[in-house]
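2024-03-11 09:14:02 DEBUG pipeline.ingest accepted 1 chain
2024-03-11 09:14:02 DEBUG pipeline.ingest length=125
2024-03-11 09:14:03 DEBUG pipeline.predict start
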Amino acid sequence: MRPYPEQGFTLLEILVALAVFGIVGFALLRLFESGLDQLERSQHHTQAALFAQSLFTRLRAQPPDSLATQQGTWAEGSYRWQLQLQPYRHESRAESTLVTATLRVTWQPQGVYQIRTILLLSGDT
């Protein structure tokens, strides 16, 4: 019979506990990192959608003879955009100022937002 009862943890128990905490900590870190990546992608898409809305609003005020491919950057070069305008052809509106607008916004790394819509330019109001 021992004079003192056993107290504390063995080395093996401590190593197992550290391994479990390490695995759980790594999993939580990856989950947090994934959430931050999703947040960043969401912010880029929101910025691109707001820019598209702003650009389409400005286009509606332009004369219909300004049909051309346009491109540029904004947000200090963080985003690049390219806009293609083509006359909208429909048998019921031969002399229309309707245009098909395709806007493509890109950002690094590998982000793309593209929207295609039909706009009525100011000449038909």
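2024-03-11 09:14:41 DEBUG pipeline.report The mean pLDDT is 85.
2024-03-11 09:14:41 DEBUG pipeline.predict end
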